[in-house]
Structures are given as C-alpha cells and as structure tokens.
Design brief:
transmembrane, ABC-2 type transport system permease protein, mainly alpha, 262 residues, transmembrane helix, ABC-2_transporter-like, globular
Length: 262
C-alpha cells in the first residue's frame, strides 16, 4: 500500500517538475532572487555584530546557522507545501476534492504533497551552505552525535511544517472560501528567522510553546553543541502530536464536507 502511494506521488512530482522546467527563465530568476535575499539577510544580521561579539548569548556565526536553517525550511515549504496549500481552495470550490476522495489512495497524502514547485529548490541548498559557513565561523566542531541530533530535529521541524499545512487544509475544507492561508504558514516560519533567545519575554516563551523554537533554534543549537539533550524526545513528541492533531482535524473536516454540490 505504501509503495503504491509513493508511486503515485512520484508520477505527480514528475509531471509537476516537467511543467516547471518548461519555464527555465522563471527558474533562473527565482534562483537569482533567492541568492539576493540570502545576501540581504546575512548583511542585515551582520549589523548587529559590528559593535558586539554576541547578542543574547549567540555569536555572529551561530546566528548565521539559524538563518541558514530558516532558508532551508522555508525553501522546503515553498517547494513541497505551498503549491498544494494554494490549490486547496480550488479543490474545494471546483469539486476536484470530490474526485480525489474517490480514488483508491490516501487523499490527505495526495492533496498535501501531490504538487511540487522546483523554482524554489535552490533555497534549501543555499540555506545548508550558509549553515555550514556559520558553523565554521562559530569555530564549533561537529561530532557524529551533534550531527545525528541536528538531523533528527530538522526532520521534526519539517514534520511540524507539514502538520501545520494539513491543519490549514482542513480549515479550508470547513470554511470553503478561505484563501491566502499560506500566509499563516509563512508567518510561522518567518518567526524562526532568528534564534528565539533574541526575543524578549513573553514573546520568547510564546515562541517556545507555539512551537517556533523547534523549527530552527533547537536544530541549530544541536549542531552547535549548545542544546539540552532532554529536548530531543520532547521534539519527537511535539512533532508526533502535531501530525496526530492535523490528521484528526483533516478527517473531521472531511466528515463535514458536503461536496461541491452540497
């Protein structure tokens, strides 16, 4: 069953990639824009460290690690999640959701991951490059244990973004006319552009509970060797709980869905 789901996704992705690559100029312009925004972000962050060695306990290199992770996650969001969330309102209004629900595969999986947009694929790569540069500037060695913790937390962060997308899709099914819900997803990621320690309370506590800190701050801290190891199981539980909540919300939304003619 899982193999069939993956085969269907692969077919959908192949078609989407082929369609996007027909507009190569758009791809190149998006790549140039991605590079520009990264340079702009690095330049902006550097201003804070012109007269101080650290801000809220974070050095220049350590902050660049978090900014790099922001670009990585936001690029993944734009590539895998945003295209599907933008289509969700059309699925509900035009009745294509009815069609998808009749197919012999997981509608949640297809609706949430069936479309990809390769024009933003450079963002994750640039983000990882910046993260690597930041680690070097911070003068921190990366041990196998730190790398494993980082990869685990980065996976949890991606799962959190996926869960948020499914929740917003469920809201679209219920509200029908809901549009631009991707702005909620973007705002959630945007708050993780810098370490949450740079915010003052109560904002810092709120961003930990929401949980924005799990997106970039904690993965970056794990890579830099400044993370409390007790947060690792917490991150896994938060990610698993978010997926369970999102799946339950999606199923409940479908029970209230009357179809395009309803």
């Amino acid at each position: 069953m899982i193999r069939r789901q993956l085969r269907v996704l692969r077919i959908c992705w192949r078609a989407a990639v082929a369609a996007d690559l027909e507009y190569r100029l758009q791809f190149l312009s998006a790549a140039a824009l991605s590079a520009f925004w990264m340079v702009w972000a690095v330049a902006g962050a550097s201003v804070y460290f012109r007269f101080a060695g650290s801000v809220a306990g974070w050095t220049h290199g350590e902050v660049l690690v978090v900014i790099g992770l922001f670009f990585t996650l936001n690029g993944l969001r734009q590539t895998l999640l945003q295209p599907n969330l933008e289509l969700m309102s059309d699925h509900v209004r035009r009745g294509t959701l009815d069609f998808l629900l009749t197919k012999p595969f997981d509608a949640q999986l297809l609706v949430s991951l069936g479309r990809v947009r390769v024009t933003n694929l450079l963002d994750p790569a640039l983000g990882l490059v910046l993260t690597t540069v930041g680690v070097g500037l911070a003068g921190r060695g990366v041990s196998p244990g730190r790398l494993a913790a980082f990869l685990l937390l980065l996976a949890c962060a991606a799962v959190l973004l996926y869960a948020l997308t499914v929740l917003l899709m469920a809201a679209t099914v219920v509200l029908v006319a809901a549009e631009d819900l991707d702005r909620v997803s973007f705002a959630f990621v945007e708050l993780s552009r810098f370490p949450v320690d740079l915010y003052r309370d109560p904002a810092r506590t709120l961003l930990t509970v929401v949980p924005v800190a799990f997106l970039t701050t904690y993965p970056g801290a794990a890579l830099l060797g400044r993370l409390d190891p007790r947060l690792l199981p917490v991150a896994v539980l938060v990610a698993a709980g978010a997926v369970a909540l999102a799946t339950a919300a999606w199923r409940r939304a479908l029970r209230t869905y009357a179809g395009v003619g309803g």
